[in-house]
Amino acid sequence: MGQAAQAPSGTRDFLADELRRRKSAIAAVSEVFERYGFDPLETPAFERLEVVTGKYGEEASSLLFKILRRGVHEAGGQADLALRYDHTVPLARVIGTHGSKLPSPFKRYAIGPVWRADRPQEGRFREFVQCDVDTVGSHSPLADAEVVYAVADALEALGVDDFRFLVNSREALRGLLEVYGVGAESGEGVLAALDKLDKIGGDAVVAELAQRGVATDTAEGIVADIAADSPDRIRAKLEANPRGKQGLADIDQLLKLAGGLGGRVVFAPRMVRGLDYYTGAIWEVEAAGYPGAVAAGGRYDRLVAALGGPDVPAVGGSVGIERILAMRETTAEDGQGLDVALTALGGDESGMLRLAHDLRRCGLRVGTYLGSSTKLAKQLKWAHEQQARLAVIRGADEQAAGEVTVRDMASGEQHRVPDEGAAAYVERLLGR
Amino acid sequence: MGQAAQAPSGTRDFLADELRRRKSAIAAVSEVFERYGFDPLETPAFERLEVVTGKYGEEASSLLFKILRRGVHEAGGQADLALRYDHTVPLARVIGTHGSKLPSPFKRYAIGPVWRADRPQEGRFREFVQCDVDTVGSHSPLADAEVVYAVADALEALGVDDFRFLVNSREALRGLLEVYGVGAESGEGVLAALDKLDKIGGDAVVAELAQRGVATDTAEGIVADIAADSPDRIRAKLEANPRGKQGLADIDQLLKLAGGLGGRVVFAPRMVRGLDYYTGAIWEVEAAGYPGAVAAGGRYDRLVAALGGPDVPAVGGSVGIERILAMRETTAEDGQGLDVALTALGGDESGMLRLAHDLRRCGLRVGTYLGSSTKLAKQLKWAHEQQARLAVIRGADEQAAGEVTVRDMASGEQHRVPDEGAAAYVERLLGR
């Protein structure tokens, strides 16, 4: 049927095995967040265009899926809605919409698809699940630590055990720039350049800083300090800088409060998050065997207001659930087999359906042969393909006697039991 | 913040309590379908526009949410994608895309949002969940009966117990028209008119049939036969009509195979489904206390091909989960309370977070006070609002002694226990 038969570019059909794996991962993470007292939130798949316009910067705006106005307005070619690009702008909008109805602080998690018209490539999709946890309305450093603990537990629930939180602070980084005499006006551009250190290397970053008007020796000094990734070196540099000291205090408080995670939370001066809305401690999680970060977050006290919500402090994190699931795709996992396969050999089948009904009510997964063959061998082959543990056979003989044959598919052992006792017999065999 | 602060027209933000109720309903229905051996399927939120174009008829097409082309193409004002309007067209597309990888018959369920730009009104939304279960690739009447059983169990899982399946057949209805000499060419229009009987009354239906070229006495005869809702009367009329007799046989087979549901499955000549793609037995479920149908379905052997998939038989049903959830909205339901509320009274809080971490790992829902007050009374008020069963208090006294106070929030009874035994003590108190 050609291209039209495919799912749209950058999207996926999730068939049974993979979908069950995804659902179970999402359930595991949800359960962790629930234990931390976070409440679920689900917003519509799309928002009014004016809610998202100007919120993501120019590049991201071009990645919005915009929805045409409908009815007589369709011909105008104008959009009035856009698919959800992340869970953060909807969160800010919800706080504006439902503010008085929400608890304060508002602790919520959101796990669901977002849509971005990125160029599709290996491992990057246009429809993918984001998994966010945020506390809005608390200045308490306990809120920061709680998010870190929750993300750590979520990663473990996803089977990621060998990980490290790399902690830094925007204030510490800005303080370092002040020490070098780099003013706030060029600060964001400079931080964005420093964020590329691991990608493009120190020399290229120095060159980019020079382009932004930073003297070469200054740029080299900053890059050397960051690249050294030495907390002691940074602490020494920031000793006399109030802003830097505040940043260090934020980092130290988070390290102390997250002490229960042991050496898995460390100060990493080299870690610079690209986004410019963070205000306090920030972190990324690196995990053995995973490229890039498997989670990231931090405090962003001015973001909700900037996104059109009220002026409230906030701290949050995001778990890279797609990235983690992608690493698992190669793992062979068993499909969902049947507990009981019922044959259909003609005659009155209503009794078989009643038996099926009884067994399903007891929680068993039961399938009925729905093909066109009336041959037992073929139907048993089907039962085998369904990975059925038991098959129930009711041919002419059994029907005449008011019985069924129950067959253990692994051993081939089988017994005839009366119709009325069949459900109880099967349940007993399967340990129900 | 004006209209921009609201969710888009016809959509809803689901806050914690309602969302938990929805998730638990969806989980209950999914579990039922799994027991029947149906596999989950999730398709993208949108399809290529050409996949959906022409599939829904003219009226429905105007209800599609169409997505603008992106990047340099955006200015052209053309759409290339459309949000999912139902789960049936994506199912047909998936069978085309993944045919060889799918089991045959392909038994799948799909529970997820669909989007229709209907005029929003009380109880009708532009984003709502559809809950479909279908078997594609089987001619067996067992497949029809299995769907009926599965839908019945799903309704019970949703708390709907007092229901009846009203069964009819398109072939029986077409046979009746033949008996009256109404040809196939006007058949669909006539059936669509008969479908309005309960809404507009017999006289109006007769008038509409007359407009469609049916003689008045013929129209009156047909309407009288349908309105009587008497299986015997219809059986007598169809005695000599082969098409009608085939329809009756389909109905009788389904009634017999679904016998385990007792009197909850009945032949209802008055039940005419509006959609014209059904080919075999069709049914609707009426339930005490619910307006309209709470579920509907039937056999539609030509639909998958008509929707662009291969030519395979199919049978399915849809549960009106939104309608059922809406009737429950008025039910007061408890929010999700905390098992343990931890106070934050200053000093070193890292021990409290470790305790929280230990308790959460044991599956308890634990919240930490994140507000700005340092007063115990205020923090206990918060614990009470969180419906916490226990509060753990660690003030200056306790910290000096290396202990915590554990307070039963209902009785007010409290005891001090050493830090290191606190987790075990709390778990014991809560029966873990």
Automatic annotation (TrEMBL), chains A, B:
<feature type="binding site">
    <location>
        <begin position="86"/>
        <end position="88"/>
    </location>
    <ligand>
        <name>L-histidine</name>
    </ligand>
</feature>
<comment type="similarity">
    <text>Belongs to the class-II aminoacyl-tRNA synthetase family.</text>
</comment>
<dbReference type="InterPro" id="IPR004516">
    <property type="entry name" value="HisRS/HisZ"/>
</dbReference>
<dbReference type="Pfam" id="PF03129">
    <property type="entry name" value="HGTP_anticodon"/>
</dbReference>
<keyword id="KW-0436">Ligase</keyword>
<dbReference type="GO" id="GO:0005737">
    <property type="term" value="C:cytoplasm"/>
</dbReference>
<dbReference type="InterPro" id="IPR015807">
    <property type="entry name" value="His-tRNA-ligase"/>
</dbReference>
<keyword id="KW-0030">Aminoacyl-tRNA synthetase</keyword>
<dbReference type="InterPro" id="IPR036621">
    <property type="entry name" value="Anticodon-bd_dom_sf"/>
</dbReference>
<dbReference type="InterPro" id="IPR004154">
    <property type="entry name" value="Anticodon-bd"/>
</dbReference>
<feature type="binding site">
    <location>
        <position position="116"/>
    </location>
    <ligand>
        <name>L-histidine</name>
    </ligand>
</feature>
<protein>
    <recommendedName>
        <fullName>Histidine--tRNA ligase</fullName>
        <ecNumber>6.1.1.21</ecNumber>
    </recommendedName>
</protein>
<keyword id="KW-0963">Cytoplasm</keyword>
<feature type="binding site">
    <location>
        <position position="130"/>
    </location>
    <ligand>
        <name>L-histidine</name>
    </ligand>
</feature>
<dbReference type="GO" id="GO:0004821">
    <property type="term" value="F:histidine-tRNA ligase activity"/>
</dbReference>
<keyword id="KW-0547">Nucleotide-binding</keyword>
<dbReference type="InterPro" id="IPR006195">
    <property type="entry name" value="aa-tRNA-synth_II"/>
</dbReference>
<dbReference type="InterPro" id="IPR041715">
    <property type="entry name" value="HisRS-like_core"/>
</dbReference>
<keyword id="KW-0648">Protein biosynthesis</keyword>
<feature type="domain" description="Aminoacyl-transfer RNA synthetases class-II family profile">
    <location>
        <begin position="1"/>
        <end position="327"/>
    </location>
</feature>
<feature type="binding site">
    <location>
        <position position="134"/>
    </location>
    <ligand>
        <name>L-histidine</name>
    </ligand>
</feature>
<dbReference type="Pfam" id="PF13393">
    <property type="entry name" value="tRNA-synt_His"/>
</dbReference>
<dbReference type="GO" id="GO:0005524">
    <property type="term" value="F:ATP binding"/>
</dbReference>
<feature type="binding site">
    <location>
        <position position="273"/>
    </location>
    <ligand>
        <name>L-histidine</name>
    </ligand>
</feature>
<dbReference type="GO" id="GO:0006427">
    <property type="term" value="P:histidyl-tRNA aminoacylation"/>
</dbReference>
<feature type="binding site">
    <location>
        <begin position="277"/>
        <end position="278"/>
    </location>
    <ligand>
        <name>L-histidine</name>
    </ligand>
</feature>
<dbReference type="InterPro" id="IPR045864">
    <property type="entry name" value="aa-tRNA-synth_II/BPL/LPL"/>
</dbReference>
<keyword id="KW-0067">ATP-binding</keyword>
<comment type="subunit">
    <text>Homodimer.</text>
</comment>
